[in-house]
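Forgive a beginner's question, but would it be possible to get any protein sequence you like and the tokens describing how it folds?
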Amino acid sequence: MKTSESITKLAPAILQAQKAITFAIKEAVNGHLRNKYADLSSVIEAIKPALNDAGIAFIQSGTESDDSKLHLVTRLMHESGEWIEDTLVMPLPKQDPQGYGSAMTYARRYALAAITGLYQDD
């Protein structure tokens, strides 16, 4: 994990947000396995209000790589300018736009859940 030089304002804001974040609702259904899961929109709905109320925004971006894998950076930015970020590296199921898009959505969901401490529940 990487951070700005200081996170003295960000750390208590993350605590404030995590006190308000409960869980992501499993509303989507996997067509192959028929199990329910929390899709990307459920994850964002579960974290964004609490983060924003604490003065935190998130951004996610794919970065260049030489290993034919998706490298996704997730950054939490506080209104003070402080930030934390981490990079998730994920294999691509296929080396085409559909494979990249599928991996990107999957990676965004898991990276946001991990960096905010979010879990899924029914």
